[in-house]
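**User:**
Make up any protein.

**Assistant:**
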Amino acid sequence: MAKPRKEMIAETRAKLIAAARRAFGTVGYAEASMDDFTAEAGLTRGALYHHFGDKRGLLQAVIQEIDAEMTERLNKVSADAPTRWEGFVAENVAYVEMALEPEIQRIMFRDGPSVLGDPSTWPNANGCIAAVARTISALKSEGAIAEIDPEAGARLIVAASSGAAQWIANSDDPKETSRRAVDGFRTLLEGLRAQKDEFRRAV
């Protein structure tokens, strides 16, 4: 019995994304050949154009898949922490440290921004900012951090973590850069709590 059309479409998309992800993660976007990964998937360029428009559209699909996996990992990091504040710090630090992982480094933090532009304009950006803003609101209600506008705080933190990750990914010494970036990022986050302590002293 023939497979339903919806299932066939999903399989075709999954094959193309998987083949492209391997190519983008190993040789990079610029060197990845559409003919190579369509052949690997057992499909044609026509299938790629039909489902993704072009190579750039396929990169966007690969990034969406990796981003969803990263989000799942980060949610677990946060959930495993003993307190909301520790989970917040651990989650943000883990995101920055993911820039050391070869596939994520190349696709998410090097080729992605180079091809698709500023990550703050990507489709997933608003969802990420909204999630961080919700955590900031919860931390404020617990009295764990200083008084700060949740959206403003979220946008600043997301921009800082994204910038740190791209710095690591494009560094000549990613491990040393990661160490410096994480140390600096922890200091920035701790500043939220330091401001709270100063506020209390002032009162």
